[in-house]
Amino acid sequence: MIHLIIHLMSTKSSPRAPLRLRNASPNRRERVTEHRAVGVTAAPTFKPIHTRRTFEEICERIREQLALGILKPGDKLPPERDLAQQLGVSRNVLREALRSLEMAGVLRLQKGVKGGAFIQEGDTRRMNEVMRDMLSLGTISVRELSEARVHVLDLVVQLACAHARRADLDALEANIERTELATKEGRLLDRVECSREFYKLLAAATGNKVIAMIVDSVTEIHMRFVYAKVASSGVAMARLAEKRRQFLSALSERDAALASRLLRSHLESVQRMLEQDPGSMSLHVALADVQPGMRR
Amino acid sequence: MIHLIIHLMSTKSSPRAPLRLRNASPNRRERVTEHRAVGVTAAPTFKPIHTRRTFEEICERIREQLALGILKPGDKLPPERDLAQQLGVSRNVLREALRSLEMAGVLRLQKGVKGGAFIQEGDTRRMNEVMRDMLSLGTISVRELSEARVHVLDLVVQLACAHARRADLDALEANIERTELATKEGRLLDRVECSREFYKLLAAATGNKVIAMIVDSVTEIHMRFVYAKVASSGVAMARLAEKRRQFLSALSERDAALASRLLRSHLESVQRMLEQDPGSMSLHVALADVQPGMRR
DNA sequence: ATTATTAAATGGATCACCCATTCAATGGAA
DNA sequence: TTCCATTGAATGGGTGATCCATTTAATAAT
Prior knowledge:
Strand content of chain A: under 5%
Largest sheet of chain A: 2 strands, antiparallel
Oligomer: homodimer
Number of helices of chain A: 11
Strand order of the largest sheet of chain A: 1-2
Order of helices and strands of chain A: HHHEEHHHHHHHH
Radius of gyration of chain A: 26 Å
């Protein structure tokens, strides 16, 4: 574990001293003298308003260090007290920044001696949170999300057919076996979990983490609907494992057209199942228990 | 503007009073007595470690209200001082939560009387930030992002062909005209901006905001490469507007195959242009000036 | 050697202030 | 009356001191 002592001085823009945005105008009266160039009728050069707040400034500087590779996952920031002093800000406002970055999945704060603020590996679940917030705020709809999912999954099938490796196929096979077992033993909700995992594995099989992240984010909400539906109705998709096997077989033989057809058909039947009970795809179901998966 | 007075009491879980996680054990010595069931050898029911910090708790409760539709975009939260008292937490820790939510694009904090914490419309640029962070942290690579972009854009072309409306096509047409003008006047960087806008409009033409958000997020970084390349080399894609016109024509005639072919060919030539100068697609270029577009 | 105790480091949280901005109310001048 | 300047209150922005809780290493006791 590298314990960097980091100078969070800005690398771009003028080499300003510790933030010190505060106390800029100790006396309001002096402000009047700021009016400049009284008689000049030239282009009114408005000051670029920089009412950037210090916590934003701090977030930005830390992200800057990340972007420059000076900070990397596993690194530790200086203790809050030290860093606050380095930056010339109060500990309180520094913590506002650190918590924001923690919420954003960039940092993890850990208590105790040898604790501190550690840079994290990127948490791909952040995108799920974005989707949830967008849904909560009404920016996107359940319909758009479902539609996007169908299209994205189709793309994923193409890519998975092209790029899936032995290990990916094996993982999918193992998943199907778990699905079969859960089916035999009547553990319906476990089977839903298997489904969730199935799509995760399929996404991973594309070999592209960006695509995988996108797929996960659009699948997450959908699986909640399925989970809720299965939990309440007690019924579940028939011949699930069997269908998965057919699909995996097509995937193994790189038959994208067939795999695509099989998946689309499955998605449609699931959709029909969900829509039997209007309201099973309500926002409420999608958003219940907000952020249970995130940072626990 | 609705001024809700909101009770941020949790709706799920027990009707607990204001958070009051603190002062739980005023005296360390008393802790010893917490050991329970001394002689019981039964299943060791470990406490589920709920070291959830209050700022997380607060974020969750506010998101809960969003999910339940009690809070909607445009609503205002109570003043910090009031809300802190309602929740039984200090103002500082409340602010940590509010700032996190602001960074997440859920809130906007506004100063002055009649100011406050306002729920925002969902900011779709949040996904761009996620991409940038993932790139910074090395979770995803430039290659994966570029690759994903190509595939996603192909999907977008299919969808845009199917769903583009008159207004969408007109907007694209107008964009091409701006591109032509910029070309004539030699404003190369403006032309790059036109390109950025072009993909945004194309994404919007799918009629699906989820897809649009995804496209924007994978295109954002790419346009930085193009911008940097054009800015440094002074050269730019030849016959850009012309190619766009051909593409738009195919789109108008709902010829997805042709449109797809045209776009892919264009993307490839751009890629060749970028790769002429190795290093032009470096992380540094992608991440310079982190978060300039976000909340300025 | 092993185990219990202690102490220090560090994040978690509170309190009491003060500043800066904004906006409505007020009041005086045209 | 109408308009503009002043004022004051509401509210977010920020500070510093202080305490608590957790974690770990060093130390002491067995």
